[in-house]
Amino acid sequence: MAAPTFSGASRFNESFHSPCTRGPSPNSTSNDTLLLPEMEPILPDLCMEQLWTEPTGPSTRSPKASKVFLTSDFCKNNFLCFLVDTQLRCVKFIQSNVESRLICTSVTNIPASDAAPLQSINAMLVLEAGGSLVLYTGTTRVSKVFVAGLLSPSFVRSGHAHQPDTPLASASTPTAHANRLPRLDQAAMPSPLSELRGSKHHLQTSWLEDYSFPQSPDVQALRDPVSNRITLELSNGTMFRVSIPEICTSTLVKKCLQAIRFILPKNAAMKVLVKWYNTYNAPGGPSSHTEWNQFVTCFLSLLGYNTERLAWIRNLCFEVPLSPVIAAKKARPSDGGSDEDWEYLLASQDLQLEQYIDLYWRDYPEFISKFNDSCPIDQALIGQMVRPSYLKAEPPSVLGWFSSCLWGEEVQPFPFLPGICERTRLLILSYALYIVGDVEATSSNQSKYLTKLTDRRGPDVVDLPGGSSLAEKLILWLSSSGFTLKDLESVPFGVALPIREAIYRCREQPYSDWSEEVCLLIGRQDLTKQAHKMSLANSKTSVGSGVSLEPSSSSSSTEPDEEEDGMSDISGESSRPVRVRVQQLPEVSDHDFIEEKENKLLQLCQRTMSLPVGRGLFSLFSYQPVPTQPLPVPKLNLTGRAPPRSTMVDLSSGNIDVPANMTSWSSFHNGVAAGLKIAPASQVDSAWIAYNKPKSPELANEYAGFLMALGLNGHLTKLATLNIHDYLTKGHEMTSIGLLLGVSSAKLGTMDMSITRLLSIHIPALLPPTSTELDVPHNVQVAAVLGIGRPPGPEMEYCTDRESYSLAAGLALGMVCLGLYQYMVGGHRRPQPGCSRDRHKSPSYQIKEGDSINVDVTCPGATLALAMIYLKTNNRSIADWLKAPDTILSPAHDYIVAGACLAVGFRFAGSSNSEAFECLYSFCRSFMKTLTSSTAAVTGHYNLQTCLSMVLLALSMVMCGSGDLRVLQVCRFLHKRTGGEMNYGFHMAHHMALGILFLGRGRLSLNTSNSAIAALLCALYPHYPAHSTDNRYHLQALRHLVVLAAQPRLLVPVDVDTLKPCYALLDLTYKESQWYKETTVEIMAPTLLPELHLLKQVKVKGPRYWELSIVLSKDTQHLRSILSRDGVLYVKLRAGRLPYKEDPQGWKSLLASKVNQHSSKLQAFKPEDISTFTSDAALVSFSELFCKDSTGNKQVRLVLELVERRALQGVPGPYSILLSSHFLSVIHSMADITMETWHNDNSCMLGSYLRTGVSANQNSMLACFLVYSALPSMPQASAEERARVGNMLMSFAPLGLPFRELLRLAPVLLAPPPGSVSQPVSVS
């Protein structure tokens, strides 16, 4: 039988049978159900297709399976199980060569009334007809199950001798059963857990073999298997949730069991695994920390040893005494034997494998010397043993393989077990890649360096990731293979040194796009946090919290003598009463004095009402609202306090005339400012937007501004269409303006037809000729025209404020790149085609213009449209059209100069260019002097104030986000002026300049893209409103379009260890352009970066911090994501260095105080001093290895071999200080002297080893000497050859020749005489 199989995303670890249908939770609601995301269907592991049906007679009953599930056994064999009546049919299947088909090999029937799989332990629980619970692994019976709480208080052994139905009964090593089973107290059993879950009890299970236990009440069914947990349904309706124990908990034991599964035949491996499972999980078994000791005892007993007679086994510390069951089942030596028993005997000492003994002794001399017990085996029996093919005469030595690889010798494939010896596999392939230089070693050439001991499938081959050097290839491959720093720390230092060398090479100049795992491996926690997108801790010093501008309590409680300038807190000044300081003269009556105070308050209110425009820019994208709370909107306070008694002054007394609807647009700006605080990454949905709608109609204007702000920061796209329709049908002018401009901004450049239709409804010229004329307010039409991008039409003749309509149409036209030359130079009107001829045939009723175009109305918009159409084209002919005449008046000259300054501001917006700043600042000072001089009346105070505001806006654009002090002083000077020509529009310009100077609380800046300059033109058009309701020349809502030109560019270095902002040097490399060559500039961060398209590379510069390079050609998006998340760039301080804040000049560094850089002498360091300079585990381990008296055995040799290889190759070492050439020569010389001294004093011990081999009285220093001297193993030589080598060494000892020189002369000295047929001894 064959069936197609498919790979699924989720495994079927539960049975297909479900006893009950689970409905929704009692606490759930229908709304919760509707909000659940749509889940993908669960894909099965195995699909079966019916091919045919056997015909059955009328009397033949064809039973159907009541339960079907998949399971596996300890050896990973797969079974498809059907529960049919009282039989569990287990079909064993394997994967065929064709991936879509399976091969079924056998069918086994197990008597069962119910069964359920236990996926995590590769077993299944079977309920027999008698009510007993039996654990099976595949078709192999493991044991009966005892569940505490279901067993009667006393139980006795069954009267008959029960024979278990398991292959374990036929084991060749017999076990001695006890005559009787001691009575087990209930208290000694694992007690059930006290936790109750509804009607289900969660219990632990215990195990006993070969005994029957009466259970009451009976278990009726098994249900809800998950992992190793299952529910027992009893006859009385009670349910118990039980947990079946694992086969092991120790990682080391798990690896050993995997090796057994790979090495032994499946039948033998199954016997061992079942025996271990029953031993480990028997009642009163060992705890987790004695698991290894129990495994050793169990394994040796299976090998045939009498573990009670082994002394070193008795020294194993069992904190929990062995249970009687285990004691009764300890293995005894077998009287007979078979080949199957001898296959387990791998003990080198008992098998007299002297090569293995010598190798293990050299690696672990102290450990091997403790094993004095021997159990010699008869040579005749050893001859009967079948040796596996992988058991070579010469033992495999991974350290020797590494040493040969370092010396460039040809190496043989090293044996390994797939999935078990993964650490060895990774290290060998690492040496092959990094030392040998074989870039195909990790993929196609693995067989050259590794040989599998089994044909079973190993781990998938991981393709070598890209990298420019071998070090990068090695690190990327190790990371993709799951190798971590924790794994590296467990590798001996000498073995791990090549990997550490590669790590140090990659750590110096890593790539910013490396994954989090790679950054962890190379020890760059700064890059790890950056990759993991972690933010600073929520503290007052965190970058994202911004700068607190709230005034202190002391300053607010005391009243200063001078007049308040209003600059104490731009974010909250409009919500507090202003101070009205008016001195009452003797001849002024009280009534007149009250009028003076109210007139003064009215002047101050012009400044207060314009503050929200600047506040919106200042607090841009600085707040993330709480989804369950409304957005806090500061109140617009237009009252005042008159000192010295703080008398309340307001404008509602009726003493002076106050313009109608004076606060309409200021409330709109206040709502925009509140909405612009919301960051683009905030959680905003349609329900929250509607939730913020105020109930009071007085706050409708603020909500209209709030809607526009949501469009500017991109959140208005989440507003439901039904809500948009509801807002527009209310006919509220401000709401329509804010919604149309907001939707247009949110859908900028998308050409969304639904938004186009929405805007067209509000433009009469775009409606069909037969449509009903709609009474659309003029300002709404202006907003719609700009939103859709339409040129002016004949409908402009009937507008009350034609200038604003024309300007909006010109700006819109410029944005869609169309020409409008006629509206600039004038001329006759063109005849209107089609239906527009009849609808707009009447002339203007405001000015008698005839058939000519009024260029005073159309010229500003058309000129700006032409400028945007030919923006950055260097078109000389178009520039000549805009050339100023040779003879101009003084006011016109001032406006031309101010316009040129504004153009400079657009050109260098956000660049902080010093030359542009100095140029603009000089003109600003010039206009300020002219404004305060006696000649101001010639030009006009209004004209000069307009020009000064334009230059100030240009200055703030150049220094955007920097908070430059000189620009701030100009803003403060103009902010204090409230009389004369200083009206609402000028205050708005000054507050916009102040907001741009601190854009986004200093985190944002302006860019100079075409769309950004167009948005700045719309927002900074230099015709400011005369009062708060003035929209004749420019719609006030367009002032907020500055937001469309803003982008995050603040880069803040944050120490990855302290999570605090710090100073760090950056190297900014500019791309080559037509104005300058490729240039590198050094700046100190935190800083505002230039526009990213101008940069080639951003590099964190040393020497205090680890270097980090961000190459913009491939990491532009990565840098943009960093800047968008508050610009946090994690950096890591080098060992022995102090931050710039604590040590600006670098004179307090630990390296500067402890090491004299000018001294050429080697200085002595204690190992504990190294931790003062570094916390790197590699260097600390290195210091402990070389700076202490203990020898590192083979690790010292591997270190020196690696460095000698690097010296021969001419490759500089990875450690510029510790592993310098002087240091290595000293280490090499000291090691040689130490070994030669020991050899001179202990030559007899060395000779004894060479004659007799390893003995118990030889110390560990001999093993170190043999390893360091690279003396090959001698047990393979005959006694005569050993004697010759020993005598040679003894005879040459008085000559004082170094031992390495003797090894070089050994082939000559030991060569046989001419004509001899004896074989020479190889000792080199």
TrEMBL record:
Asked whether the UniProt record includes Hydrolase among its keywords, one would answer: no
Biased composition regions of type Low complexity, renumbered to the chain: 542-558
Can you give the residue ranges of the Anaphase-promoting complex subunit 1 beta-sandwich domain?
1049-1134
Q: Where is this region: Disordered?
A: 1-34, 538-579
MF (Gene Ontology): molecular adaptor activity
Keywords carried by this UniProt record: Cell cycle, Cell division, Mitosis, Repeat
Task: Please list the residue ranges that the record marks as compositionally biased, kind Polar residues.
Answer: 7-33
**Boundaries of every Anaphase-promoting complex subunit 1 N-terminal domain copy:** 225-298
Q: Does the keyword Cell cycle apply?
A: yes
User: What's an example GO BP annotation here?
Assistant: metaphase/anaphase transition of mitotic cell cycle
The record places domain Anaphase-promoting complex subunit 1 middle at: 349-529
> What's any one GO cellular component for it?
anaphase-promoting complex
Q: Which Pfam families match?
A: ANAPC1, APC1_3rd, Apc1_MidN
The organism's superkingdom is given as Eukaryota
InterPro entries in UniProt = Apc1, Apc1_3rd, Apc1_MidN, Apc1_N, ARM-like
Family note? Belongs to the APC1 family.
Stated name of the protein: Anaphase-promoting complex subunit 1
- From which source organism is this entry? Muraenolepis orangiensis (Patagonian moray cod)
